[in-house]
Give the backbone structure.
Amino acid sequence: MEVGIVGYGAYIPRHRIKVEEIAKVWGADAPSYKRGLMLREKSVPTPDQDTITMSVEAARHALRRAGGIDPARIGAIYIGSESHPYAVKPSGTVVAEALGATPEIHCADLEFACKAGSEGMFIALSLVKAGQVEYALGIGADTSQGAPGDALEYSASAGAAAYLFGKEKILAVCEDTYSFMTDTPDFWRREYQFYPRHAGRFTGEPAYFKHILGCAHGIMKKSGTKPADFRWAVFHQPNGKFPMRAAAELGFPKEKVEQGWLCPTLGNTYSGSSPMGLSAILDVAAPGDRILMVSYGSGSGSDGFIWRVTDRIKDVQKVAPQTRQQLDDHPIYIDYGTYAKYRGKIRKLAEA
Amino acid sequence: MRDVAVIGVGMNRWGELWEKSHRDIWTEAALEAVADAGVDRVDAMYVGCMSGGLFVGQEHLGAMLAEQLGMGPIPGTRVESACASGGLAFRQAVLAVAAGEHDVVLASGVEKMTDVDGGAATYALSTAADQEYECYHGITFPGLYAMMARVHMHRYGTTRKELAEVAVKNHAHGSMNPLAQFQGKVTAEQVMESVLVADPLRILDCSPITDGAAAVVVASLDAAKRMKGGAGAARPLVRVAASAHATDSMALHDRDDLCWLGATAKAAEIAYKKAGIGPEKLSFVEVHDCFTIAEIMVIEALGLVERGKGGGAAASGLTALGGKIPVNTSGGLKSKGHPVGATGVAQIREAVLQLRGEAADRQVKGARYGLTQNMGGTGASTVVHIFERIERGQGGMER
């Protein structure tokens, strides 16, 4: 029996900060950062937005597209994030409660740097496939932080995507999955540290590219497919440049990846990155289209999925806010001072 | 003092060698040099390494690498003179053979720089500047060379594009060197639009952080002539025509002239005198282009161009392969990479390949004399060597 996506949704905060605004504060050369990262601006969460609230928003969009199924039928919720608001206390239970999916539900919070979202999707999909639950929700969401002045500060942004998996009224069938992992320490954050650390150029070749390309080649070999068999592809987007280079090396032309390439104006939403890119593709996909998705998380690993879009897609695309619409419509640009306040980089005396 | 010859060379592909350790990198190059020389032993070895301690937490390299080579208990000596460590290690090997203390000596250099992040690497490199009078004020090497560039531009009218042309030339040369870290060509526009590091220097004006090693074997010229076996038997001999070493003020601000490399000029003067030739006799030179401005200042100090006229040399084709005096046919530090302790030895390898006629696509035709210049810091130490090709049997020297 076929298993796949029955509802999807994304959420992007409206606030943005431009590369120039960050570069100005640190005396950095904005044009070279914009060129080097292929990135112009990034989303910023307000003080009342976090991984939990964005997960709820994205999941509500997914439920709407699923045709209003009773949330009580959701048997599992997995939230992948590296910015769960609590070190101890689950995000999943709060989201389940807000959706009306409690108490007969299994929850787990996942963490695998930027890959946690796709692993939530993988587990949710697998439980449905196994017949353990009727519906399961996999969410990737992050409000990640880069240390002030670090290269990551230009890209670390906020957003979420949610996928509801089931066996009926499927809008995209999962044709295959494949995962590729090694112990590659390119980026990490220890307990009690506020900002992550990264190993500079080591994050490229032996980390991102090895796993993205390894996973993409692996899933195409396993499924007997080639780039020409796909209408769309989406890869994890730590910056604008890496996914485009990966696509070129794999032989995917620009027109197959541009739709899901949100990074230039969204930034890197970490666990939300490739899932959000997939949502932007589903927003425009046509029945029969095949989509390759490959996530990446530092540490390191990639999850690959092959989706085949069904006729149902046309009924759901406009039912909830579309991803690029949220990205492009009515952004609110903020200055670095406001950004520093929103992100807790500076604190009012009474709160300190 | 005995005449000395270089009888073997070795080097591995340079780059970000994340899967190889400091000792692996060194051992590959050292074994290749020993094999190339066709000898079954060396009597002593010298290793140039700027900062094994800060880059990989390893000192005491003389003993460790002698063991690694499988030739203990030979004397193993580590030599440090910042980025001139390799050139100076070679000079120690030459002196040991010339003095008659040893007959066959390995001279090598190694640096493993990518096991630490950019900040730690910048700190390690900054120890080559004056800690008390320069580093405490926050200066780094790109900053120091940027100031030298500013003065050169102000005084001599050297342009931003002329700096870029040095990188264009060296990357073009490096595209023909299969062991270079970066084998792609760049345009002047790409250089001038690359990320700003320390105004006016951009990232493509700077040599990279590199893992790599190089090694050569030296022997007395007489012994070299007697060696009949191995690949070397049919090759021309490469004689060390001169070895010179000079120093200058450690801190840039103590120099009389901020854009004149006094130690390089002094070492070159001594070397030309010892070799009995002037710069006009040179077929090629390998110089320390840690930044584009450095090559411009070095070719002035070596007397290849008039003082203040170094800026136009690359753009005019003077210093390109096929030009009057090719500079950095290997790609230089800029394209080949700059594993600081290994750089001076790799320059000597390039000189030997050129003089043997083994430099393939980047061969300087009919090369007879070649010079290498390797410097530490902003030029506070400089080592200059001149090499001469000697055909076997030439001048009745064959015994």
The first helix of chain A runs from residue 19 to 26. Chain A has two domains: 4-171+314-351, 173-313.
